[in-house]
Design brief:
alpha+beta; Lysozyme; Muramoyl-pentapeptide Carboxypeptidase, domain 1; 3 domains; 5-stranded antiparallel beta sheet; two-stranded antiparallel ribbon; 18 helices; 44% helix; globular
Length: 436
């Protein structure tokens, strides 16, 4: 899966993850598959402007042929490629690992996404019922992945996939991993599953409605609409069914919960917490762990783990095997919790009971847009109030934090700066100069 449910948070600038797949309008006429081998004769690729990059592509050409990628395929799709070095800056900036959990979840599990997800459940009810029957994964979980990965197909990444993956194959760390993804992309193009035209995704190579990495696409994707192609960019049925197939192959258990928000007993030893520290459920119950909503926990011995992601003062969770399946989609606790909590909301849940341990909670997208509108009114050139917290917005927040005496002046879009600007009211325009 992608390094990150990432497309969405990175494109929201600390607001989405990227991970495994994405989708379009139902009943769209699928494009015809490309021929397996390009009709043009094989010619050596045009040398790239960067000699190191050109040399790297030349070496990859030989590796590709050994993996069954024809010279014609390789040359057709690499001709004219130029490295995009900006992707290297993103290797160590995944939002799942760099954003406070309350900010991450506020942007991904907000009221508009819940409303949109419930609308998708209604619109695609028949399809989701067929997917659930075929794979045993409930519709809310599948739609939650779709919502977190690409905002239901709205934000699936704008970076040219072949450019990003070829660059990461030749520069930076993890070159071996990205070379595998790059060559797999060429295999998918050669097979006709995907088209090169408009092929974009995250900086790391995840693409489609639910953001599959190419190697995951090759292993897991299914042709659920029966058109002869596994098309996760233009077929909602293929994308949602492939998502369910991924979860099943990751150990999903039909009819079981992912977990529950729980209340910990006084004096709970945090050394027992962690996704890999499993105990039979009866042992956790014997220690005094109980569901936060007062409902009884199941009376069985299935293994479970306790998560305390922000410390003893924050929300705690008891998680089961299905949480692990979600986690495998993009290996980050924040990501897995976003999927799980959004799925709960889509089923009609009201959200977490325990507050996050902060006096400056994160903002959902409507509140982010409100904050940006206030910044624009104060003369900050940040572009549109789109809810995406980018560099210009963060710089403007720093200036306002400094002006208002808020510490730390870190550029974070939190509840404090929003409240301070709202309390201040609209800025007062300077008086018009008088004409002598």
């Amino acid at each position: 899966m992608t390094p990150n449910a990432t497309v969405l948070l990175l494109s929201m600038a600390m607001a989405l993850p990227a991970s495994a797949q994405t989708l379009p309008a139902p009943d769209a006429t699928p494009p015809l598959p490309l021929p397996a081998t390009p009709a043009t004769p094989a010619v050596p690729p045009t040398p790239a402007a960067d000699p190191v990059f050109a040399s790297c592509l030349t070496s990859l050409r030989g590796v590709a042929e050994k993996q069954g990628i024809t010279a014609g395929t390789f040359d057709t799709y690499t001709q004219g490629l130029a490295a995009d070095m900006s992707v290297l800056d993103l290797l160590d900036a995944q939002p799942e690992f760099t954003t406070p959990l309350w900010d991450y979840l506020a942007a991904l599990v907000d009221d508009p996404r819940v409303a949109d997800g419930q609308a998708m459940l209604a619109t695609h009810r028949d399809l989701l019922d067929r997917v659930s029957l075929a794979y045993g994964v409930d519709p809310a979980t599948v739609v939650a992945v779709w919502g977190v990965e690409s905002d239901f197909g709205r934000v699936s990444g704008k970076r040219p996939l072949l450019v990003s993956l070829s660059t990461l194959s030749c520069f930076g760390r993890r070159q071996s991993f990205f070379r595998g993804e790059f060559l797999t992309t060429l295999k998918l193009l050669q097979a006709g599953d995907i088209r090169a035209e408009g092929l974009t995704g995250s900086w790391a190579g995840a693409f489609g409605h639910t953001q599959f990495m190419p190697s995951t696409y090759e292993r897991i994707a299914v042709d659920f609409d029966g058109d002869g192609r596994r098309n996760l960019t233009d077929s909602i049925p293929d994308a949602l069914a492939s998502t369910a197939n991924y979860l099943v192959k990751s150990g999903w258990r039909t009819g079981e919960p992912w977990g529950y928000e729980v209340k910990l007993p006084a004096g709970f030893d945090l050394a027992q917490a962690g996704r890999t520290h499993r105990k039979p459920l009866t042992q956790w119950v014997a220690q005094g762990i109980a569901r936060i909503d007062g409902q009884p926990l199941p009376a069985d011995d299935r293994n479970a783990a306790v998560l305390v992601p922000t410390g003893i003062a924050g929300p705690a969770f008891l998680v089961f095997k299905n949480y692990d399946a979600i986690y495998s989609y993009n290996a980050a606790e924040s990501y897995a919790l976003a999927i799980a909590l959004l799925a709960d909301r889509l089923r009609g849940g009201t959200g977490l009971v325990t507050a996050w341990p902060t006096d400056d909670p994160g903002l959902g997208r409507p509140q982010r847009r409100e904050l940006q509108t206030l910044l624009l009114a104060r003369g900050h050139a940040i572009g549109a109030a789109d809810g995406m917290i980018g560099t210009q917005t963060r710089r403007a927040i720093v200036l306002e934090q400094q002006r208002l005496g808020l510490q730390p002046a870190d550029g974070r879009a939190g509840a404090k700066i929003l409240a301070a600007l709202k309390a201040e009211g609209p800025p007062v325009a300077p008086p018009e100069p008088r004409t002598p």
